Predict the 3D structure of the following.
Amino acid sequence: MISKKMAQEINAQINREFFSAFLYLAMANDAVDKGFNGTARWMTLQFEEEQEHALKFAKYLQDQGEKVVLGAMDAPQTEWSSILAMFQDALAHEKKVTAWINDLYTLALEEKDYATQSMLKWFIDEQVEEEANCNEAIAALSMVSKSVNGTFMYDRQLGKRKED
Ligand code: MG
């Protein structure tokens, strides 16, 4: 059993995870359009991962006897000036997600809601990985940003991302 406020906040997070999926899909689409097929694959896998995050929160809510309520989503940005800019936006977005998850954890602490605290630990760890992945791509792409060849080489590297 969780509080109505917690259920409401988790529902909001489900929508945000779906928006994250939508944002990564928009990035994948723009990458395909510009011929960066490796980046497109990376972003498509991320799109799938974000949907899994949303469904993981949804399952938790349902296991707690609460209803999942989906809301409207904003349209994502559809164009980026470079794949470096894409990863910079992805990092900025993931930082927001990290802050939202931290807020959920703070609420769970305040409410002495141990089950939600336990569930959120997986997401807290996941966010460290999400930010690290973006930082790694940003560091590499920053080094080769003035080289078309270097950017294409790193794009191929991104395309080797394995499914989790
Ligand atoms: Mg996520």
About this structure: Helices lie at 4-33, 37-63, 83-110, 114-143, 148-158.
